[in-house]
């Protein structure tokens, strides 16, 4: 069983799913350094106390993987003095706009047609595969930035689960973190206090009914099969993690060594 460093995460009021990725073990016996790589949901609703805590981390860069539609819905991140904010949308705002409008506004019958019978989970799996195949430039930019000067860094999307989860996973793969530990960190997004709050429009009894929440759950869960699909896409497309990093992302062994120097004990 992989040994994890006990969590010392703070209780943030307006930021969901925040945690330090430090402590995760690598296959060669090292660990991710504490205080250099963080992940979370968006920072748009951070309170003054939240912002003060985030400012105390000494962050160099915040990577924001939300698209324009996310920012319109949630708002821009709060400004953290002296911190560089890098916007790298990992999904097209037009992609799925109608789908997410249905999630927020659709009635029970519409949601059944859209999400039942494994459709919701299949959509998530397809999304993870697409991000790995198509967003190589963005992931390359993140890894090169981390290798050069961008730590301590915080990666976030809207919920801190999918787009940030994939970017953290790619970073951990580049560092040689144990696969089991990568999956365990990803699944921590399921903790009740970390989960993204589901917002639906309407006042009918069906708006948040048990059946509706069950239909929606695959969209808001972190599931092993989602991350597994992403890693399988790496292996199917490039033949393995090393080739993905070098050929897909342009991350050479020299860049990986700089990453290890900055992010590992």
Automatic annotation (TrEMBL):
Pfam families (UniProt xref): Y_phosphatase3
Signal peptide: none
Gene3D superfamilies hit by this protein: Protein tyrosine phosphatase superfamily
Family the entry assigns: Belongs to the protein-tyrosine phosphatase family.
Name of the protein: Tyrosine-protein phosphatase
Organism: Streptomyces glomeratus
